[in-house]
Design a protein that fits this description.
Elements lengths: L4 E12 L3 H5 L5 E13 L4 E5 L6 H8 L7 E6 L2 E2 L6 H10 E4 L13 H11 L6 H14 L18 H13 L5 E5 L7 H18 L2 E6 L2 H7 L2 E6 L2 E7 H6 L4 H8 L9 H4 L40 E4 L2 E3 L8
Parallel strand pairs: 3-8, 3-9, 6-7, 7-8
Antiparallel strand pairs: 1-2, 1-4, 4-5, 9-10, 10-12, 11-12
Bound molecules: iron/sulfur cluster.
Organism: Thermococcus litoralis (strain ATCC 51850 / DSM 5473 / JCM 8560 / NS-C)
Pfam family, one: ABC_tran
GO molecular function, one term: ATP hydrolysis activity
Length: about 325
């Protein structure tokens, strides 16, 4: 089968403002290489998780997929269509209907003066769906039922601040689904919610995936929710995917030292990974993406770093075993 989303060698470089003197001295322009050659595929009704610490490029990748940013280089295909080629307002509007986003903080993405009814009617009006008020009302009630905000008539008149965090996020999901999208980019959709309701919201998203046939790009710093929610995981570090594969394989048999370090940092250890929790295989902070280390970009923090190799030569993402990709010179040897 064809993937729903295909990303090919995607790059996004942000120029760093140069001082006047640097310009006069003829110093070359510098860039933050936020996304630096990322490729992956997402298949229908799958959840593909992009996992990493802040600054790894996962949110920028999500914004590129949403077409909120234009790539410096590379291609994005949705259902075979080259997204980077969409130029006219009409084309972009049609794309925005197909690809919806759920944000970390539903509150900041909702107009506080809107009632829940208006929050859900807005996308219908923008995209001209539902000709009459009655038709739109039916769609709004259905969407609320789908996310278990029931009975809808008790909620449509409320304002966002009158809902709990979990309810608000469910309304945000309803707002994304009301347009019947192909693809949803969910950027940390549960990280601001109480731990006790995270699983509930993810469970709902999973259920809707089956019912509505949507496909998700799930962006998170949290490997434990990725393991639960995702079918595939790509671990990002400083703009690159360093490990990618089926969620179970990546979690149960992590190969890249960075993935192992992330797993070791999971507060509630994942039972079957206890053996690696004893390691403390990471040092220091994520370097600034404006100063990416030479060679393997993880080398200053890696306990296994081999001098003369890791600090000079850039490893490539290679298929370590079937469908399990790793970007590390010592993959399988450590
Ligand atoms: Fe560590 Fe070397 Fe592998 Fe990079 S290539 S992750 S420095 S062992």
């Amino acid at each position: 089968a064809e993937p729903v989303l295909r990303v090919e060698n995607l790059k996004k470089y942000f120029p760093i403002k140069r001082g006047l003197l640097a310009g006069l001295r003829g110093e070359p322009p510098r860039f933050v290489r936020a996304v630096d050659g990322v490729s992956f595929e997402v298949y229908k009704q799958e959840v593909f998780a992009l996992v990493g610490e802040s600054g790894c490029g996962k949110t920028t990748t999500g914004k590129l997929v949403m077409k909120l940013l234009e790539p410096t280089d590379g291609k994005i295909y949705l259902e075979g269509q080259d997204v980077t080629e969409l130029k006219t307002q009409e084309e972009i509007k049609a794309y925005r209907r197909k690809v919806q986003m759920v944000f970390q903080d539903p509150f900041s993405s909702m107009n506080p003066r809107f009632r829940i009814y208006d929050v859900l009617e807005e996308p219908l009006l923008i995209h001209g769906i539902g000709e009459t008020k009655a038709e739109r009302e039916e769609l709004i009630y259905k969407a609320l039922e789908m996310v278990k905000i029931v009975p809808p008539e008790d909620y449509v008149g409320r304002h966002p601040h009158m809902l709990s965090g979990g309810q608000r996020q469910r309304v945000a999901i309803a707002r994304a689904l009301i347009l019947n999208p192909t693809f949803i980019v969910a950027d940390e959709p549960v990280s601001m919610l109480d731990v006790s309701i995270r699983a509930e919201v993810l469970e709902l998203m999973k259920e809707l995936k089956e019912k509505m046939g949507v496909t998700y790009l799930y962006i998170t710093h949290d490997l434990s929710t990725a393991r639960y929610f995702a079918d595939h995981i790509a671990v990002m570090y400083l703009g690159r995917i360093v490990e990618m594969g089926p969620a179970k394989v990546v979690i149960d048999n992590p190969i890249h030292p960075y993935t192992r370090a992330l797993l070791a940092a999971v507060p509630e250890p994942i039972p079957e990974r206890r053996n690696i929790i004893k390691e403390v295989p990471i040092k220091g902070e994520v370097p600034n993406a404006a100063n990416i280390p030479p060679g393997c970009r993880f080398h200053p923090r890696c306990l296994y770093m081999e001098k003369g190799l890791c600090d000079v030569k850039h490893p490539q993402l290679v298929e370590y075993e079937h469908n399990h990709w790793v970007e590390c010179w010592l993959a399988g040897k450590i």
